[in-house]
Amino acid sequence: MKYANSVIPAIDLRKFEPMQHSGSFFYSLTFSLFLILCPNVCEESQAAQKPNVLFIAADDLRCDLACYGHPLVKTPHLDQLAKRGVLFKQAYCQQALCNPSRASLLTGRRPDTLKIWDLPTHFREVEPEIVTMPQLFKQQGYFTQNIGKIFHNWRQKIQGDPASWSVPAVLHYATHGSDKPIMNNNTELPVNFAKTQKTESRDVPDSAYFDGRIADLAVQALQKLKRKREPFFLAVGFWKPHLPFNPPKKYWDLYDQIPITTPTNPRPPQNVPAIALHNGRELLGSKGRNLTQEETIELRTGYLAGISYLDAQIGKVIAELDRQGLRDNTIIVFWSDHGFHLGEHGLWCKTSNFENDAHVPLMISAPHMKHAGETSHALVELLDMYPTLVELCQLPAPNQLEGKSLVPLLNDPTQSVKPAAFTQHPRPAYFKDVPQNMGVSVRTPRYRYTEWRNFKTGKVEARELYDHEADPDENTNIVDNPSDEIAFQKAIKLLEEQFPSKTTQKR
Q: How do beta strands 375-381 and 86-92 pair?
């Protein structure tokens, strides 16, 4: 494994290089007078040299994209983005829940540092003066704008994060259940062809739902941003494929002739501790219920249809970026806050430490990339996006960022910047006051190792180990019989270094 310790951007994001001239005193004097008399030209030139950022987020999207190898899903626009950037094959969230994941990504701090593991706690209640990623861009002269869900969307006194944006955010604060179809001119709502709970298939335009309207607003924003003198950081946060699975009918129709089935591993992993599982209350309710085969297939179809709907909206936004001639000076980042279960291991939704929840799509496309279309298999974390964009845009990095810049991987996708990725989740999954337990998990190139610790005492109450070389679906917990003792001990050491146990802290 090769590690890149030095960070030297090879991606030249500057359109213009300083002129090398061996001219005379007359030339120097003339040029100096030009700068004095025409300051606006100089300012516009400097603005042009700063790259824009188009920051695109998805919600609850696991790596079910064609460019990640999914055999059924239709995602032509994201596949095209992958061809123009670097795709990170092994990217991981820091917690499989919206608020902790997004707070971590956007502040550059881990959930344990922020002390945020739930939905209601806003990071500014914990650390009011913290500088978020878009806020830093704003401080450095960027015009920052938020359309859609970027920060957490509900249950908080602070709606989003007004300090991060140059103008008020829109379509960013609501419940997912309020994303109901709206028709223009009081048109009667078409029939719903879906039958399962939290699914909807109506013959309506894309703009009937949040994400279609977000795409339309993002297109309009790009048209206005084209005329601005300062560089921009445009954050476009889509709400799909999060429940309810309600994309317009034409996206369901894409899968009419595709043999979508129930999962091949519908039962919990062998030897799994009960604490690693959960009741999937987001879909099944707090008491839980059993889904029929037909319901399971319709839900799995609705999820893929939602991904195709999301893909189409992203396509509209990127097409407008191209139409406005902004692509050659714009960095595009695409990410999801965490993954999702669709019946695998008997689980639905998120809030676990399993691979399906922790593993996320991540792509970065920058102007003049040498390795566009390539894939990085390095272990990376959503936490790494903050220092990456800071370096790409040559901004001063704030103190206490806990991620690593991925610029070395953009320059050489065969490199690595860290030996492991870390994820965690409490129990109960949706706790009150303080958790009873915390599950801390490390992903190495071969293993996922998880410890479930008593939150107060730190005592390890259960452990899991999955060998991704032999068991990529995590169907058997081999913690009592590891396939490689040396690699297993290394994983234990990495976990302990990142999440020191209470006994270690007392030494």
A: parallel
The pTM of this model reads: 0.91
Could you tell me if 147 and 237 are in contact, meaning their C-beta atoms sit under 8 angstroms apart? yes
CB 370 within 8 A of CB 10: yes
> 474: left (phi > 0), else alpha (psi -120 to 50), else beta?
left
Catalytic (active site) residue 63: no
Catalytic choice (93, 98, 349, 393): 98
For residue 408, give both structure tokens. Answer: 């070395």
Please tell me the distance from the alpha carbon of residue 82 to that of residue 64, in angstroms, as a whole number. Answer: 14
Angle, in degrees to the nearest 10, between helices 210-225 and 293-323: 10
Told to judge if 152 belongs to the known catalytic residues of this protein, a careful annotator would answer yes
Selected catalytic residue, list 77, 152, 338, 425: 152
pLDDT for residue 448 is more than 80: yes
Instruction: Report the DSSP pairing between strands 362-365 and 330-336.
Output: antiparallel
Scanning 60-197, the segments in alpha helix (DSSP H) are 76-83, 98-107, 111-114, 123-126, 133-139
Q: SS3 letters for 168-234?
A: CCECCCCCHHHCCCCCHHHCCCCCCCCCCCCECCCCCCHHHCHHHHHHHHHHHHHHHHCCCCCCEEE
In single-letter form, the type of residue at position 94 comes to Q
Quick: pLDDT tens for 163-218: 999 999 999 999 999 999 999 877 899 999 999 999 999 999 999 999 999 999 99
Give the Cα separation of 127 and 227 in Å (integer). Answer: 36
Token readout for 485 is 């003792």
